[in-house]
Amino acid sequence: MALIPDHPNDAGTWTRLEGREGFALWRRERLTLAPVTMYYVVAPPRQSEILYDEAKARLRFNELAGVSGRETAL
Fold this sequence. Notes:
single chain, alpha+beta, four-stranded antiparallel sheet, 4 strands
């Protein structure tokens, strides 16, 4: 089983929302310059994808991780 990737070493408050066999979905709340919440979909070896809408980020995570609609808990 692959390890769930850790968050990048960037400033902000990080929370792992989902993790599944080498894939991860992280929320980053950054307060510098302007408050913003970003969602990082981590699916190696691809680059992380950054989205600003949690529902879209969860859908993308589910696509990449191969999660069916029945397994998804929103």
